[in-house]
Amino acid sequence: MKKVLIALMVVLVLGAAGAAGVWYWLETRLTEFAATPFGGSAPVTVSIPPGTNPKGVSTLLAKAGVVSDGDLLYSWLRREKLGPKLKAGEYEFVGPLMPPQAIEKLIKGEVKVYRFTVPEGLRWDEILPIVANSELELELEKLKALVADKAFLKRAGVPAQAIEGFLFPDTYTFPKGVSEEQVLRKMVESTLETVKKATRKPGVAFDVLQAVTLASIVEKETGAVEERPRISCVFHNRLNHPEGETKGKLETDPTVIYAKMLRTGTYSKNITKEDLFTPHPYNTYKIKGLPPGPIANPGAAAIAAALNPLDCPDYFFVSKNDGTHVFCPTWECHTAQVQKWQVEFHRKK
Questions:
Q1: Rounded to whole angstroms, how far apart are CA atoms 25 and 19?
Q2: Which pLDDT tens digit goes with each residue over 266-318?
Q3: What is the pLDDT at residue 14?
Q4: What are the Cα distances from residue 75, in Å, to 31, 58, 79, 121?
């Protein structure tokens, strides 16, 4: 009996020693694995579906070549108890990376993002194709349906019956999987936030819709940022002095172009005398005050100018054919500048 017990103890000791040896061997391998960079310099994109367990994550990363061994990664994740911290999403890896560096991206949720840029001064129908053609794989028809949906406009906080003017020009960053509604809502929120943060000159009592409407006109009238506060001043002078040179009318060509587009269904920068005299809510040669809504989507500089115009005596401005304008306080000055910069300039050309 004594010999049996001794033999049993020897087996147990050898088993423990063997287990310790295996444990030490595995720990050594895991430590070396975690400290060894792997992968190439070319970007690798891996999509981790929601609900993927740590074993599945390890397999996906190994198949993509982000790590050298999926089983070792799984063992390392178990040892470090990191499985519950992994987040689903689309990730981009640029190697060589050590496994902890790759896993850190999943823990932090540093998903791959896609960017698109919306220039200032575009109409909504020009902006939606930019969004749809981005790498976010959004559907143009869904975007169009949303902007035509009054319930969506209300949910998004648009203070108007149309989305025109509230798709803020900017560079946007989104992960794959974002919805059409989320993108449009973010653009609207950016416009509302820009209006809210803009410095407002004392006496300017515009609401959000009025501010964005005037900003859109300023945006379409000049591409020169430094001119926008003075262009805004001209329009404020026209609005605030109904007995002034323009009798409270803005008389701005971009609104006529927009009115013509709404009337005919086609966009053209060429306007005729008939266009100028055709009554329409957006034709500011025929109506007094602001049109019913924006004619484009203004950027931050135009919004700032609309709410904080320069102090000036001017009622008119004339293009100098180089993107800038000459300003005039009287009709006589204006007609002289038209003769110089429009009639004579084009005659010489």
A1: 10
A2: 888 888 999 999 999 999 999 999 999 999 999 999 999 999 999 999 999 99
A3: 47
A4: 11, 9, 6, 55
The dihedral region occupied by 109, where left means phi > 0, alpha psi between -120 and 50, and beta the remainder, is left
Half-sphere exposure at residue 11, Cβ-oriented, CA atoms within 13 angstroms: 6
Which tokens hold the place of 103? Answer: 């896993």
Domain co-membership, 225 together with 341: yes
Residues of the domain holding 94: 36-111
- The one-letter amino acid code at 12 reads L
Q: What total of structural domains would you count in the chain?
A: 3
Whole-Å CA distances, 263 to 5, 63, 158, 256: 103, 58, 24, 10
* Helices assigned H by DSSP within 86-167: 99-108, 124-132, 140-147, 150-156
Domain boundary residue among 195, 221, 238? Answer: 195
Q: DSSP state, 64?
A: T
Whether residue 138 is found in the same domain as residue 243: no
Confidence of residue 73 (pLDDT cuts 50, 70, 90): very high
72: number of Cβ within 10 Å: 19
Tokens of 269: 């920068």
Mean pLDDT in the chain?
Answer: 91
> Whole-prediction pTM value?
0.84
Q: Say whether both 186 and 306 belong to one domain.
A: no
Question: Is the domain of 206 the same as that of 316?
Answer: yes
Query: Which of 37, 34, 36, 32 has the alpha carbon at shortest distance from 96?
Result: 37
